[in-house]
Amino acid sequence: MITKNWQIAELINKDVLGSWPEIDPVLLQLLWNRNIRTQEAIDEFLNPDWSQDVHDPYLFRDMKKAVERIYEAVGAKQKIGIFGDYDADGVSAAVMLATTLKKLGAIPEVYLPHREREGYGINNEAIKYLADKGVELLITCDCGIANVSQVAYANSLGLVLIITDHHQQQAELPPAYAILHCGLEDETYPFKYLSGGGVAFKLVQGLLRYEGCHLSKQEGEAWEKWLLDLVAISTVADMVRLVGENRTLALYGLKVLCKTRRLGLRKIIEVAGLRFDNLGTYSIGFQIAPRINAAGRMDHANAAYALLVSENATEAEELARALNLTNSERQKVTEEMLQTARLQIGELKPEQYFVHAFEPSWQLGIVGLVAGKLVQEYNRPALAMCQIGDKICGSGRSGVGNFDLAAALKECQEHLITWGGHKEAAGFSLGKDKLEEFLKAFTKIVKRELKGINLAPILNIDLPLKLNQVDWSLYEQVEKMEPIGQLNPTPKFVSYGLNVAGLIPVGSTGQHLRLVLEGDGLSRKFILFRQGDASTQFRIGDAVDVVYEVGVNEWNGNRELELKLVDIKLSKDKE
């Protein structure tokens, strides 16, 4: 097990407790730890209100302009193109826009790029293809903000461009007719962290609330509500900050997801073995979104799009089962690539501030997953790269503190052909003869930014507890923190000096470890996932300190607390 630095949040004082006597002290501590410290912030977090906490779409600077141009196209029977992306965020955004435009009387032409052959963002070949198909108005989803020359090319062909995106702004904005991007420096929209699907949803809201919309108010509101399952998927899958408006969208979106009318989603939920009455952010992040993403990672995102728009039960089930198999293959390939990456990295040196791996034959759709897993294992920025034709294509994850991956790539742009993304995750490409120069430049930047920082992973802990405080009342307070996500992590607790009374390997290959720990006059069962070999590190009778999350395990009608171990150490007096 990797040694982690335990960092326990400062306990709130009596004055804070006295200011909110109606809130359970554990819940108040959890809120305080997440910087939710005013009555307004607490009310918005605990009781999101659709009418107050979801902003008016027309607060976007270019929203009215975009909506009026779309209605002009609908009225004139102009063909409207939708250019999406190949991940769960971009596919969900494309589905939202396409189905809404059909509802409004348009016949949209949807185009999703192939990850390996076309890469991220709009490209000239696709633009020419859409122009030849008669598209006059082109709307991007989850891309476009970095495509200055491509938008100029589209303009030269007579296309009008509306960009909806949320990726990092470049030095120059593309010459589009309208840009809907919550994070632009001069954007008037008050919330800055929407997903790509979230921005597309705001455009849908703008269309449905426009005075010229032929739908009744009731019909428009109903249509808007039933799109929230896709908004929840895009918001959780793209790992944007789950606070503010995103929290409200995700919370209501999960409610809609539990009763979704979308046949494809129902089938994917069923093949994943999930229950409709128990869907949360974990269900999306680790079960639903990976199956949607698998289409674009292993072949083409069109399969995921077809699943989400399918209106035929037989077709939806076939597509869901096919994506389930594709996801299983994706998992296998990911593990094989990860093993290769570990061998390339070898033993970390103290001065090694980031890790990287390059294998020409790797699948481009998987390198981002490998980079993410390398960050989890080594707690350093990570790059994973493969070769496509005469180019090296890669994906990176930042992983540590405030390291800005997109900014680092921007500094290296003289060595790159393309680059783009976010602070935490980004993609890039370069000539195969430029790899050594790029890595040298990137190494200098990472060393400059991370020098002097302790790269041992920090484990943030919310609250120390006695074992007799871990009960159903505690779980009820933890549950109020849902939906869990970025800036609102799963609550973690620590208990000290517990006695090991049982060590039981579980799982088909003994890959997990069940522990029975005693303290304060009672015992509790804990589960340590994917670390069954930890049974050799501890013995019956050892005193241990443990960090854990509190959840529920349900099977055969039984329901019990599940305490998931995050970290375990011998107590100091036994070391």
- Total helix count? 20
Spatial strand order of the main sheet: 3-2-4-5-6
The CATH class designation of the largest domain is Alpha Beta
How many E-type strands? 18
- The tally of domains stands at 3
What keyword list fits this structure?
globular, 18 strands, alpha/beta, OB fold (Dihydrolipoamide Acetyltransferase, E2P), five-stranded mixed sheet, inorganic pyrophosphatase (n-terminal core), 575 residues, 21% strand
Briefly say what this structure is.
The protein is of the alpha/beta class and 575 residues long.
Q: What would you note in describing this structure?
A:
The chain folds into three domains: 5-44 and 458-574, OB fold (Dihydrolipoamide Acetyltransferase, E2P) (Beta Barrel), CATH 2.40.50.460; 52-236, inorganic pyrophosphatase (n-terminal core), CATH 3.90.1640; 346-450, Diaminopimelate Epimerase, Chain A, domain 1, CATH 3.10.310.30. The two termini are 16 Å apart. It is an alpha/beta fold and 575 residues long. A five-stranded parallel sheet has the order 3-2-4-5-6, with helices on both faces. A five-stranded mixed sheet has the order 7-8-9-11-10. A five-stranded mixed barrel has the order 14-15-16-18-17. The protein has helices spanning 14-19, 25-33, 39-46, 50-53, 63-75, 88-103, 124-132, 148-156, 196-208, 217-226, 228-237, 244-257, 263-271, 281-298, 302-309, 313-345, 364-378, 405-411, 435-450, 472-479; strands at residues 5-8, 79-83, 109-111, 135-141, 160-165, 178-181, 355-358, 382-388, 391-397, 418-421, 425-431, 458-461, 463-464, 493-506, 512-519, 522-528, 543-555, 558-570. Strand 4, helix 8 and strand 5 (160-165) form a beta-alpha-beta unit. The chain has 20 helices and 18 strands. The model has no long low-confidence stretch (mean pLDDT 94).
